[in-house]
Model the fold of this input.
Amino acid sequence: MTDRLNITLLGSKFMGRAHSNAWSQVGRFFDVHPRPVLHTVVARNAAELADFAKQWDWANYTTDWNAAVTADETDLVDIATPNRAHREAAIVALEAGKHVACEKPLAATLEDAEAMAAAAAAAPGRTFVWFNYRRVPAVALAHRIVASGALGRIYHARASYLQSWGGPNTPLLWRFQGDIAGSGAHGDLNAHIVDAVRFITGEEITSVEGAIEETFIEERELLDGSAGDDISRNGAIGRSTVDDAVLFLSRLSGGGIASFEATRLATGYSNANRIEIHGESGALRFNFERMNELGYFRDDLEGSERGWTTIDVTRGADGHPYAGAWWPPGHGLGYEHGFVNQARDIVAVIGRGEPEVPLPDFADALQTQRVLQAAIDSAREHQPIQIEQP
Ligand SMILES: NC(=O)c1ccc[n+]([C@@H]2O[C@H](COP(=O)([O-])OP(=O)(O)OC[C@H]3O[C@@H](n4cnc5c(N)ncnc54)[C@H](O)[C@@H]3O)[C@@H](O)[C@H]2O)c1
Done:
């Protein structure tokens, strides 16, 4: 194996920037082998692409995704395009023998996710899904605390992901178009917290017992342009074909119960990704808006010490995940560090090393997609849905 890992990135906007930053930073903070090389970036807007490539130090750029994905020099294809585009690019890449790192949700539909997982199972390349919140040190620590058995049996998982940018003045971006996005807040936000609950508890979600899917804003202003490159409002009105909010109740494989809420209309919240876990001997709570902290309640503490403790998860010398690669204690991390940490773990797996905490592959993300589909089925059919288990 050479010590280079040539990356071809698809997408150059929000996640395109987050991933470009991750690939360029990872070798500066972690000792990684092979070393990622920013080889080629692909997007649709040719006019903007040259500037993007220059700003982020991509050696090459093109609008021809198929040629870039299948090129001999490409080792890993990194998919940061709208959800509907994940399937084709991932399957072409896997069939060409490449490693694939794909943004979440794995796909726009369960059918697409199944096809992608089947292609992954038949291909030599490794697969990864960018559930980046697993790589926030506080979330990784929560996973370790539960895995140590310190919480005992899990009774409750309570997860909500609250944003507020989806009001009536927000135009009909691809995120509101069902044929491109698959779903709205559900695939966008519930995907993250379903993955996080599975990751932290180590349990599977076995059923959806009831769900609500709501579209509050049915019409939005149309944009000229294509997915991710919407340039201007054109004054016409189109229909939103996705949910604005989805809430559902579930059972866990260890006998506990869980609730999930995702919305783009939680006025006052910008990115409140919150998870609380209650076990028989302790509890944990996390809120991304205070991402360097993990709340921990230990039921074995007596008297005056009993109560919630806030752990500042920045102390690498004390074993806080990823923290040792970054700054001295108390110098907090931000949103982008989760992506750099994930880039570190992707490279470690490709180099036959170990990730800091488990990384989701396509098979793992397919299970999250089954949960998402069960919630939608439950909401539409008004009945509980059992979820196929891996
Ligand atoms: N992990 C996270 O926290 C997180 C956050 C935001 C978005 N996402 C996911 O990342 C993906 C991209 O979202 P985004 O917010 O970056 O979107 P975006 O609209 O900001 O950018 C989309 C990019 O994809 C390109 N594109 C569109 N269709 C394409 C196609 N068929 N082939 C090649 N390129 C194409 C566009 O040119 C643009 O560069 C989505 O799957 C989304 O769910 C994940």
Residues 362-381 form the longest helix (20 residues). The radius of gyration is 21 Å. The CA atoms of residues 38 and 58 lie 5 Å apart.
